[in-house]
Amino acid sequence: MKRREFLKNTMVLSAAASCWSMNSSIVSAEEIKWKTKLQKALICGYPTEDTLANWKRNGFHGAEATDWKCGPEKAAEARKVAEKLGMKIHSVLFGWANVNNPDSFDKDIENISLALKTTQGYGGNALLIVPCRTGGKMPNPREFKIDFDPETLMVSKVVEGDNAPYADYIKAQNDATKASIEAIKRLIPVAEKTGVYLAIENVWNNLWVTPDFYAALVRYFKNPWVKAYFDIGNHVKYAKPEEYLYALSDTIIKLHVKDFKLDLSRPDCGGFGGFVEIRSGSVNWPSVRKAIDDIGYSGFMTIEGGSDPIQKKSADLDLIIAGK
User: Fold this and answer.
1) Are the CB atoms for 303 and 44 separated by under 8 Å?
2) Does one domain contain both 65 and 175?
3) DSSP characters over 196-216
4) 3: helix, coil or strand?
5) Structural domain of residue 40, as residue ranges?
6) Do 242 and 296 share a domain, yes or no?
7) What is the pTM of this model?
8) Any idea which of 39-48, 135-144, 192-201, 244-253 has the lowest mean pLDDT?
9) Are residues 189 and 307 in the same domain?
10) Greatest CA span in the chain, whole angstroms?
11) How many domains does the chain have?
């Protein structure tokens, strides 16, 4: 090769290397642009070593347990296993309670108290509870325009115009709110003693369905041990998940990851549709990721449900965390 050709080829290679380096810098900048740090988790019953080891191999950092009945001592055994693997059992899913039923109120308080102690045993810092649910004739999801007293949380209207068709639902809503307030107040001392947050999740229980009302419920207690467990997919039929994220903001202690596909064949979407695999529905995940960063949430994102293989769940959650 002549000297001139050698120098020319060297310059081309150098330019290509420089271009690759700049592209690498751009990729790195995109990866680190978020201020918040998110970790990946899945849900299981009682966390076993085999389960946790498999999840770690597939890129997950922790687990949410549903077995609260095992008690704090048995939970502590799982915690040791998790710590040995470098994993975290970060929360417990208690789920549905029924505190608006006077016949089961005391038993629910007893069960949730045990679940708080079990969560402490696991080494988790939050217990997901849904205080109660109600039914009756309700507006279509996107028709809700709730008028409530911010001091008492009592509802006077759920839609614009005539509310007579929803009178029974409004009464049931207010009765459920009163019972939930009483229950949570009784549980706060247990939460404080165990160091475990009462994380209120609002699912398809037909209560506190709008972003401002959900946030008002959580903030009502003015207590650091009462937080929100926000499920990104559960609320799509009522409003955009971003609206809830901004409304709840610093009250959010945990996030569940699901997706919901709205039925766009309806003129107003109507809030009707169904759950689908993550990144396959109507959730705008880049917008959600930005909202998460804007409110300063760092912590676990736990996938709930879905039938995709664990490898795909892990890859899809990576994309969500990257803002894609």
Assistant:
1) no
2) yes
3) -EEEE---TTSSS-SHHHHHH
4) helix
5) 35-321
6) yes
7) 0.89
8) 135-144
9) yes
10) 95
11) 2
